[in-house]
Amino acid sequence: MVNATTKRALQYVKNTNGGASVMHFMDDHEPVGIQIWGTLTQQKLVTTDEHGKIFLTQEGELALLGA
Description:
mainly alpha
């Protein structure tokens, strides 16, 4: 189960549909973007592609659904 901050961050990533980069995430979540991103990556809830775009992992999708 994820906390409310993590859930909001996961929803943000899902809503960008591959249109945002890690830098977009950091900017949009100032001043705590780096901490939130660190949590998401440590829990393997997000990933980036070869162009630096952000996406949910399968684990991230399940966490967002509350599974």
